[in-house]
Amino acid sequence: MFTTHFKMTAQPFLERTPVEQILADERITQGLARLEYLARAGSIALLTGVTGAGKSSLLKLFVRSLSRNLYDPIYISLTNVGANGVLKLLLTSLGEQPRRGKERLFLQILERLGATEHTTIVVIDEAHLLPSEALTDLRLLASSGLEDGPALKIVLCGQETLRDELKRARHADLTHRISVRYHVPPLSKEQTLAYIDFQMKTSGASDKVFEPEAKTLIHDYSGGLPRRINNIAIACLIHAATKNTQKISEALVNDTASEFHLP
């Protein structure tokens, strides 16, 4: 195992990164600032980005930052279930047994929200898979708040096609209610280098394992997308361990990229 070869105390470049191992770079900081505004004063947030850009890491940090004395966060990612299915998932997450009939589902959700002093923040991941009707339902729920403010706040998180869907005329009311919008960009070259160094340090290994030219090449191959960086870096570490070398050079990255048919 490469972790033994490099004397690591933990595995770096994990697909599901623990919150404490997430690097809060400039992109994440900017996104958090917008989501924190949503929690305080907004209604709906739109978070977009290409696959592997780091949207899930941002959501993890946001949910963790919420005071449980003020907020009840709910995370939903199984969005390809139809409009009624989304309402049922929401109710199940609220600890309720969904009733039959859409009108009863709406009333049940509103009754449940009205019974708590906390603000419920529903984070919907993979929101680009939501049917159009479900987006309308969510807008109706978010706009039916209590007198003192919305009992329900929504974070819509998805790929760029979500923005295209929201441009449709039928979603005009929804887009007008979006308080904050943020598109998670890829990492810059400097951020990629810092990300690789951070991952190595948190694993207990030296940040000198990846030579500067190797890190730059990984950025070029990955396009700055953290998930791709993870995959390439792990492949390089495995390759280096099998070759019994302690350094990952530009040549080794090229070798690894060729083996894994990376662009």
Our estimate of the beta-strand percent is: 5-15%
> What is the radius of gyration computed over CA atoms, rounded to a whole number of angstroms?
21 Å
Question: Structural class, please?
Answer: alpha/beta
Total of DSSP H or I helical runs spanning 4+ residues: 12
Q: Could you give me the name of the CATH homologous superfamily of the largest domain? A: P-loop containing nucleotide triphosphate hydrolases
Instruction: Return the average pLDDT rounded to an integer.
Output: 92
How would the global form be characterised? elongated
**Series of H and E elements:** HHEHEHHEHEHHEHHHH
Number of strands: 5
Give me the side-by-side strand order of the main sheet: 2-3-4-1-5
**Major beta sheet summary:** 5 strands, parallel
For the record, give the distance between the C-alpha atoms at the N and C termini, rounded to a whole number.
26 Å
Helical coverage, percent range: 40-55%
Quaternary structure classification? single chain
Element layout with pairings:
Blueprint: H1 2-5, H2 26-41, E1 44-48, H3 55-65, E2 71-76, H4 83-93, H5 102-114, E3 119-124, H6 132-142, E4 152-158, H7 161-166, H8 172-176, E5 178-183, H9 189-202, H10 212-222, H11 226-242, H12 250-259
Parallel strand pairs: 1-4, 1-5, 2-3, 3-4
